[in-house]
Every structure is written in C-alpha cells, then in structure tokens.
Amino acid sequence: MPAPALASAAAYYALRTRTGRRVMITLVALGLVMMLMLVSAIAAILSSSGGSGSGRPAGCVAGISAPPPPGAAEGGQTQWDAEQRANAAVIAATGQEMGVPPRGQWIALATAMQESTLRNLDGGDRDSLGLFQQRPSMGWGTPAQIQDPRYSSQIFYERLLELPDWASMALTAAAQAVQRSAFPDAYAKWEQDAADLLAGVGNNAAEVAGLACPPAGAAAMPGGAPGPAGAGGPALEFARAQLGKPYVWGATGPDEYDCSGLTMQAWSAAGVQIPRVSRDQTKAGQRVPRDQAQAGDLVFWSSNGTDSGVHHVALSLGGDQIIEAPQAGTPVRTRALGGSYDEQRLLPYAVRPGAADPRS
Fold first, then answer.
1. DSSP assignment string, 117-175
2. What is the distance, to the nearest Å, from the Cα of residue 310 to the centroid of all Cα atoms in its chain?
3. 3-class secondary structure, 105
4. What's the pTM value of the predicted model, to 2 decimals?
5. 354 with 286: CB under 8 angstroms?
6. For residues 315 and 297, what is the distance between their CA atoms, to the nearest angstrom?
7. Considering the domain 232-353, what is its CATH architecture?
8. What 8-state DSSP symbol labels residue 98?
9. For residue 254, is the peptide bond before it cis, meaning its omega torsion is within 30 degrees of 0?
10. Radius of gyration of the chain from Cα atoms?
11. DSSP bridge partners of 353
C-alpha cells in the first residue's frame, strides 16, 4: 500500500477510538492557538511601526518643519508678493475643489515655485507657458488655456493623480514624473516654502501642518540617546537652505560644498563642532543602529564595510530620506536610501553629533 494511503488509513482508525479523537482534538486546538499567536504578533509589529518601519506617521515629510500658524510670519526662504500669493491661492483652491489632499497641493505649489516662481509667464524654454511652464506642443492645452492659472493647475493635478503611488513619492519624484524636467532635483529646495505658503493661502492649515514629521531630535529612540535638544533641527534647516548649490570637492561653503563640508557646516550652525572629513566624522558622536537614525544624524558609505573605507557622508532626514552633497555635477539634494544604487555600501550605524559616545 502506498505511503499516503497508509497515512489515511491510520488517521481513519485513530478517529474511530476515543483516545484517537482526543489526540486529534488536542492537535487542532494547539494549531488554532499557534495561528492566533502568530496573527497577534504580526499585528503588534505593524501597529508599533505605524506602517512605515520608522516610528513616524505614514506619509509625513521628514525634510520640512511644521508651517507657522495662520497670521504668523512665514518661515520659508522666500517672501512672496501679492501676485505670487494670488497665484498660489488659485493653485490651492483648485486642488481643494478637486478633492486633492494637502500633500498634492504642496507638490503643485513647489512645482510652480521652481518652474515660474509663481508668476504666470507668457514665455519660457521653447514653447513653455504659465505657472507650470506647460507646453502646448506636448499636449498640455492651448496657449490660452495654459495661461489660465485655474486650468493649468487643474491639468497638473490630473496628471499627478494618474500616478498610482504619487502620495508616497518624494516631492522631487512626483514633480518630475509629471513635468519631465531637465533638473529634477531642483524641486527639493522649495519643500519648506511650499508648506509655509500653502498654510498661509489655503483654508487647511492644520492639515498642512500634518505634512511635517514630528521632531525626532528631542526624544530618545530605542538603543540610543538623543543629541542636544533640538540640535538636529537647526542642522537640517541650514542644510535645506543649501539645496541646489553645486558640489565641489574640498568646498565648505557658502556657495558650494562637498559631502563632509556640508555636514560640518550644518552641525556648526547647530552649535556642534565636528571634524572636517567624513572618515573622522564617524567618531563625532554616539553611534546608533542606522534604522534608528534621527533627523540630523550622520550616515556613511564605505568601500570596504569599515570605518577605514568611508568615502561619503550625509544627513539623515529621518526614516529613509537623506540630504547630501553627492558628487561633481549633482547639486545638494534630498533622496531616498532604500533601493538606491549605493545602498549596499551603507555602514550599519549612524552617528549622533554632540551625544556622548559610550565607546570613548
């Protein structure tokens, strides 16, 4: 008799006896208990991670601060005149009428800031027109339509909403997917200005404030002590102000930077002095697991997996995002770590400047 048939026969005769039935009932009960325990464990892990694995609210933007309350001075890098604010109000209002969430309105404002500085231009590169520098020859509409701020905003939103995962994309990636710009990283420098202005011209200031991730520098993460209270905030504020500036090897600002020049000056602006070169910056504070990095912590790349091979450093924005001066030809920018071409060279720790290193 084949083995499966023998097993079936054994199970049949076992069930015909009282002892056999008790054994089978016990086994089934144990299986159900183990399954419930597994489901509970998975639920607990997902709950504690907030769905993002970083302890941050899903969908928050690590690179910006919460906008000022209505009526307060805007905290971005640029002051806007009446014409620019009126155009921003049209972009925001159009998004609200279409049911576009604040994140989408924020992307639209940042895009228009980069493309036209919020002015309804009657010209540009080739046949580009309007707030978003859309081109009639590329199917965006007629010249008259594109120079109507409401129409140009509406068609931008329509193209944005066609992207299946736009709500989880970085601003630069979402804007580039719609605009196909020759300078995709340039949108990043408007992250804070767009959040601040959107809070000022829209009617959803509380929701806009929710775009910003909670400050990570003021609270300890598991496995590591915080740096000086709020120190990561000033460091990142300085670094964000350098977005778009060119990379030059050996430069420490104010108009150009290399990787460690940017991190050194950012932490100097926060009142913490760290060494000049990336290899020495690995000893500039407390080491914590990289997946527990707070905003402002330093992350490193190495050619051999050890401190001696360190060749690049960047500032963590929290979660999966960084700000860096990458290489010649690429300006200061933000980007994601996950899935990047150089992810395998990341060292497993981050350094928290100003926090005592227990190894020393």
1. TT---S--STT-BTTTTB-GGGTS--HHHHTSHHHHHHHHHHHHHTSTTGGGS-HHHHH
2. 24
3. helix
4. 0.54
5. no
6. 6
7. Alpha-Beta Complex (3.90)
8. T
9. yes
10. 26
11. 285
**DSSP β-ladder status, 298-302 and 310-318:** antiparallel
Q: How far is CA 2 from the centre of its chain?
A: 59
> Do 232 and 293 meet the contact criterion of CB atoms below 8 Å apart?
no
Q: How far apart are CA 158 and CA 110, in angstroms?
A: 16
Q: Which residue type does 276 have?
A: R
Tens of pLDDT along 29-50?
Answer: 566 656 655 544 444 333 333 3
- 204: which 2 tokens? 């959803």
Neighbouring C-beta atoms of residue 208, cutoff 10 Å: 23
- Alpha-carbon separation of residue 317 from 35, 63, 235, 336, 355 (angstroms): 38, 6, 10, 10, 18
Three-class DSSP labels, 189-207? HHHHHHHHHHHHHCCCHHH
Q: Which two tokens stand for residue 239?
A: 């670094």
> Which residues have C-beta within 8 Å of that of residue 145, sequence separation ≥ 6?
151, 152
Statement: residue 201 has pLDDT above 50? yes
Asked if residue 214 lies in contact with residue 319, where contact means CB atoms within 8 angstroms, the answer is no
* Of 186, 214, 200, residue with least CA distance to 333: 186
Per-residue confidence (pLDDT) for residue 21, from 0 to 100: 59
Tell me how long the chain is.
Answer: 360
Q: What is the pLDDT of residues 285-315, one digit of tens each?
A: 999 999 888 889 999 999 888 998 899 999 9
Q: What H or E segment, with its residue span, contains residue 285? A: strand 285-289
